[in-house]
Amino acid sequence: MTRPRLSRKPALVRLLSVAAVFSIILIAIQSSFFTGSWTPVNLDILILSHFQSNLQQCVANRGLGLTAHIIDHCNVILKFPQGTNSTWYNEQFKIFEPLEYKYDVCEAILLWEQYRNMTTVLTREYLDSRPDGWFDYAAKRIAQLGADKCYNQTLCEEHLNLTLPAKPPFHPRQFRRCAVVGNSGDLLKTQFGEEIDSHDAVIRDNEAPVNEKYAKHVGLKRDFRLVVRGAAGNMIKILNGSDDEVLIIKSVIHRDFNAMIKKIRNPVYLFQGIVLRRGAKGTGMKSIELALSMCDIVDIYGFTVDPGYTEWTRYFSTPRKGHNPLQGRAYYQLLECLGVIRIHSPMRAKRKQDWSDVPSREMINNAHRAALRLKKKQAGEEGGLGQFVNCKVWGKSGPYGTGPVSGSTDMTDTRKDSNYNRWEIMPFESLRMEARKHYMQMEGVSLYKMDGNKLDDLVCMKHPLKSEA
Ligand SMILES: *[C@@H]1O[C@H](CO)[C@@H](O)[C@H](O)[C@H]1NC(C)=O
Ligand SMILES: *[C@@H]1O[C@H](CO)[C@@H](O)[C@H](O)[C@H]1NC(C)=O
Ligand SMILES: *[C@@H]1O[C@H](CO)[C@@H](O)[C@H](O)[C@H]1NC(C)=O
Ligand SMILES: *[C@@H]1O[C@H](CO)[C@@H](O)[C@H](O)[C@H]1NC(C)=O
Ligand SMILES: *[C@@H]1O[C@H](CO)[C@@H](O)[C@H](O)[C@H]1NC(C)=O
């Protein structure tokens, strides 16, 4: 059918991108002839153009028909093949899904690389240091407060204390390989169970069941689970006695949740960045953000990423509507070719695990530096581009692993011997070597987002290093 066209296209595409890089070199040389210098801007554009052509090749190889069309060194359009069924009607926007999606790759690299160094769990030190952290931000995380601000901080603490650790309970680079398991019905077409369980940590979503019935498809290992408000009711049934699984609430805390938490021994926290991202719908992105903030490699399973979907199905329940398969599929493919995630799905199940066309760590680091330099140049900002370049607010906190643990003022007997302390008071020495190294390189600083997806506004918390403590 379309096979021959597919295999010929990449060659042509490669040729075109080589030509593009060449013409950029020419322009760069010409302009440096006139200005008398080979400016770093030209070099950065070259690096990014090279990255783009790599991305284009990666999409051609892995995109199951998707193609990448380069606009300039930052912008790219991902296109579905002509004739793709776009009869999916989006209720929200009252349109049929488009077949083309434009992305700013420079922004995407900056955003997703930043997650690798980020803390994504809400902590007391964050609320204490963020401007109006308690008054303003904390109030947004509490349902049933009856006010839009915390006029009475004690009252807000009462709502949050059960889920609020003093310091980040998890750390960048804490795990090497993580599996993020979505809920898609396509999980039933494969037997990824053992492969999923072989990861250092497994992240699941909401009410996705884990039991013998589905074990060969989704595995049995459970480490993290992102949940939304409303899940509190049947959470105890879902957990089914699994005390270790960490719950991370990605919306707001409310009375029902707190009542439920007091009855279980699981660690429970609030996710810190809650604003939904443009460009990718659904809850999957939060799980990927959480995973990236702790793991080197993020493998995703059970996301609807293969062509041919006409409805949104879940592996444990009947199909329902309300998803944007094409938009999500294009964005996940972009993320795979930016080296953020690795996609596992039925149509890719039989392939050898070959990631050679995904950009290397070194290539991503180079592209990241180039994108950052260009961005700062465009904003007219000079000066250092170190790891704290985006720190807007600084705060100071006590040494690693000290301070009150979550729930300490409202410990029910069940929670007193709960498993929160496994993470919250873990000695620095028992952290994975890469995580310790990162902590030292970051000089003991934890990075938090201030608002949504704004790249430039970080809250940076300095913890004394061992020797200074
Ligand atoms: C603040 O909230 C606490 C706890 O609910 C309550 O005991 C206290 O009276 C409140 N303070 C004021 C000034 O309303
Ligand atoms: C919340 O926890 C902190 C730290 O353990 C404690 O200092 C504070 O008094 C607690 N607040 C309430 C209202 O229980
Ligand atoms: C709970 O776990 C047990 C095994 O530990 C299993 O037999 C049972 O089916 C599970 N229940 C649910 C509702 O998944
Ligand atoms: C496209 O999807 C619609 C809605 O699910 C379906 O009715 C139609 O048969 C599909 N068309 C093709 C060509 O696959
Ligand atoms: C992330 O952390 C590493 C140290 O592990 C540092 O070299 C790098 O500059 C940081 N990157 C960002 C985007 O913060």
Question: How would you describe this structure in keywords?
Answer:
469 residues, alpha/beta, sialyltransferase cstii, chain A, seven-stranded parallel β-sheet, three-stranded antiparallel β-sheet, 16 helices, disordered N terminus, binds 2-acetamido-2-deoxy-beta-D-glucopyranose
Topology:
Layout lengths: L2 H33 L4 H23 L4 E4 L4 E5 L9 E2 L4 E2 L3 E5 H11 L8 H6 L3 H8 L12 H8 L14 E7 L11 H5 L3 E5 L9 H4 L5 E4 L4 H8 L6 E4 L5 H7 L6 E3 L13 H9 L2 E7 L10 E3 L2 E4 L4 H13 L4 E3 L16 H18 L12 E6 L16 H4 L3 H5 L8 H9 L3 E5 L8 E5 L7
Parallel strand pairs: 6-7, 6-11, 7-8, 8-9, 9-10, 11-14, 15-17
Antiparallel strand pairs: 1-2, 2-5, 3-4, 12-13, 16-17
Helix pairs in contact: 1-2, 2-13, 3-13
The structure holds 2-acetamido-2-deoxy-beta-D-glucopyranose (5 copies).
The site of one 2-acetamido-2-deoxy-beta-D-glucopyranose (NAG) has 4 residues, from helix 6.
Descriptive account of the structure:
One of its GO terms (biological process) is pollen germination. The chain crosses the membrane at residues 12-34. GO terms for molecular function: sialyltransferase activity. By secondary structure, this protein is α/β, with parallel strands linked by helices. Among the domains are: 3-113 and 360-378, no CATH class; 175-348, sialyltransferase cstii, chain A. It contains 16 helices and 17 strands. The strands form five sheets. The protein has a seven-stranded parallel β-sheet with strand order 10-9-8-7-6-11-14. It has a three-stranded antiparallel β-sheet with strand order 1-2-5. A three-stranded mixed β-sheet has the order 15-17-16. A hairpin with a 4-residue loop joins strand 1 (67-70) and strand 2. Helix 1 runs antiparallel to helix 2 and helix 3 (105-115) crosses helix 13 (361-378). The longest helix is centred in the first third of the chain and has 33 residues, at 3-35. It is globular. The N and C termini lie far apart (67 Å). Mean pLDDT is 84; it is low at 1-10, 29-37 and 276-280.
